[in-house]
Structures are given as structure tokens and as C-alpha cells.
Amino acid sequence: MSLKHLVVVVPGIGGSNLVDGKERRVWGHDLGALAMAPFRAEELAIDNPLVPAGLLRVSGALPWTGVASYGRLIAKLKRRLQLSNDDVSAVGPQGVLNPAASLVEFGYDFRQPMADSAGRLRAVINSVRGNRRVIVVGHSMGGLVARWWWGVLGGHRVCDGLVTVGTPHRGAPKALDWLVNGVSLGLGPVGAASRHLLTDASQVLQGWPSVYELLPRYRVIKSEAGILYPHEWEGAGDWFRDRAGVAYRTHLELETACVAATEESPQSAFMAFYATGHGTLSSAFVDRDGRLRVSKDDPDWFDTKGWKGGDGTVPSLSATPVERESVNERTWSPEHHLAMADSDRAVAYVAQFEQDGKGNVRGGSDEDEAWIGLDYDVVRVETSTALGLRLNGAEVDDGVVPQVILKAEPGDGGDRPADAMRLEVAQTADGGWEAGLPGLPPGSYRFTVSLDHVPGVDRVETSSLIGVVEA
């Protein structure tokens, strides 16, 4: 069934397939295939020309972090909007494979500046839109690309709805940690030990303009000199401060353009989906030795309005743009960052635009239900660790313990266990729980957490992805 709108999905960092000049996949999987390409960091260096070729259909794991897949999101949109396979098309190296499609999967070179990717997004939309109005759904960094198209490039004039899901509109301290300290597998001794094993990946990331645009747009570093923006910290080298300064000014340009666009096109709806309650890098400080440390503590120099933590990657205070203050332009969602890529709430919101009346196309910021917060990092292969769990919005009796089931994601390759496994769970002193994760082969795994006997709702459940990497 054709839609009256053109719906475009823009993925996050790592969510697009990339191929070289010979159409050999360097990152991702072949269109229609499921096995992930072997990863070699040097092939993703910024000076190696690559071309986007569709979205990831299965979850993947870079050597230092998990990346979302978009097969579930596309499937949910198809069901909700009653679309056939012919109504969905990817953007390949030669353009949109089916220009008449109602749902377009926009892949892009996630190494490049958002302005470059947004320019390509504009060209794709203009080539297939015809007389249709547009709905754009951007996950994570894809929301920044979409917002640049909307505000700077004039997309607001043809857009009925811009939907961002887990987007770091004000940046993410994880990017600060990667660029200054190098990529690692989490915090603490394990993270420190992994940094020297990931030197190649760190050097590659330092060349990506896109990662600098993910730096916190807010004062994030606590130091003897005061509370600083990343580009103001003199402890970093000139190479970092210069690039961080360019990224900061890019965000100022984006915000100015979006203010003007909102005034010109007030009928163009905006909605940011965000999460709270998950362990999320949110602040940074300079230790007595002059080294930068990132922390999952909320910055105490801001009023975070009770929005503790974030979605595991994006702090809740970053998930809405500076120029957007209305509670009707943000909606809470309970998922962890990777699982938000196919958020049921975002899918339902998009579907509202195909209804005859749009009076209910709005949101709210109150977390009005119980949900399970998660705290975990990428795991090194064959290394035992723990998943942190916490019930938010309700309380249960002592002794009530959640059930955690882990299963390998299909199609990710590798010699991984085929059967689901139940993890051992123990209560912690602070009222949460820890689920013991055994040493596992590399790849992507989905875990489901369910908790019974929760007052008012009886059962609370959540699901997310974790990457096990070789480092």
C-alpha cells in the first residue's frame, strides 16, 4: 500500500554498509545477505574512499562497541504502515533502487561530517519525493544528519515530521573519551587494559570528522580552570582542540538555522525520543595527574530535572536540541540505546502521520511507568563480566529477582552458542541486581530481562543488545 508520505530512515554511526570502489564490502553486510564483513580498522580510515550501500540488517560489533541493526525497525514500520516489500527500497551506490517506494533506507558514510551526509540526504529525497511530504526518522547520529537537512538545507519546507531517537543533539561524553583517551571496553581496569590493544581503532576514529561532532555541546569537563567545553580544555593537544572547536561552531550554526526554520515552518513537527535510568557516561573531570576521566555521574553543575543517566550512550540531557524546550516535542522511551533503534513508541508516532487527523501527533516527557535500567559495556571475548540491572518507577519485595535470558543474534557469523542461556542473577547492596555474563565467543547477543510481581503492572520486561569483541 502506497503512503501519502515518503518515510526515510537514517541510521546511527556504523549502521550503514560501506563498500569500496569495486563494491567490496568494507563494513556491514551485502544487501540481502546476513554475514558481517570482517573488520579491519585501517580500511575505515578517512582517506579511504567508501560508498554507502544500504542499512545493517543484523547487529554488529566494531572492535570497541556494539552497533545497532535496522532490520527490526524496517519490519515494524512495514507492518504498522501496511507496506509490501515493493514499497521499501534501499539507497545503493547508484541511488534509490526503487524511486516509487514509500519507505526509503538512507545509508551514508558515517565517517564524514553531518553536513556532507545531509547534502546527500537532500539529493536522495529530492530525487524521489515528487509531490509527497516527508517524514524522516533518525536514530542516534542519524538524527543529527536529519536535523541538518531539516534546518540548514531547507528540509523543513517539505517535512511534516522529523523524529529523532536516542540522538546526541548536545553530544555524548563517550566520544570525548574515545578521542582523548582512546577507545576502550568500558571503564575501570578492564577498560584501561584494553586501550593499548585498540590503538589502530583509536587512530582511525581520530580522523573521522563525525566523531568530533558527537562531542558534548555542553560544559562537560570539571577542572581547576572551571567547567569547560571540550575545545576549551588545554590538557588536550592542539589537534583535538582545533577540531573540537570546529565541531562546536558547527552545532551553533545548526541551532541558529533550526530556530529560523521553526519560525518559517511551525507546522513541521519535531519529536525527540529519549531514555533515562541506564548507566551512561555523562560528565568528565581532570584528575590530580592532569588526565581526563569520564564518569557515569550526572553533572552536578546542571539541573538535570531528575533525568538521571540516559540510554546507555546518550545522556538524557543531550537527547533534545538546545532550541527545543516544549514537553510536546520530546517523549520518553524505556529502551537502552541500541534497542531504541526499533522503538515501538517511535514506530507508533510515525504511523500517526498517515491518519486523517494529526491532533494527537504530540508527546510528553513524564516517565509514567516502571522500567528496568541497564548498566553495561562492550565485553571482551571470553571474559566474564556482569550486567547491572535496576528497577525504576516502582519497588519490589526483597528476594524478588529478575530472569535474564541471553541468546546469540542470528546472522552475525562466528562460532556462537545456538541455544538460549539463563544467566545467574544476584541482588546488590544498593537494591539493584547483577547478572553474571560468562565468557563468550565474539559477536552480537540479545538479552531479555523480565521481572514479575511488580506492583501495579505485575510484569516488567526489557531487551537489549551487547557486543562481544576481540581486542
From TrEMBL:
It comes from the Bacteria. SUPFAM superfamilies: alpha/beta-Hydrolases. Pfam families: PGAP1. InterPro entries: AB_hydrolase_fold, PGAP1-ab_dom-like. GO terms for molecular function: hydrolase activity, acting on ester bonds. Residues 128-180 form the GPI inositol-deacylase PGAP1-like alpha/beta domain. PANTHER family: LECITHIN-CHOLESTEROL ACYLTRANSFERASE-RELATED. This is PGAP1-like protein. It comes from Tessaracoccus bendigoensis DSM 12906.
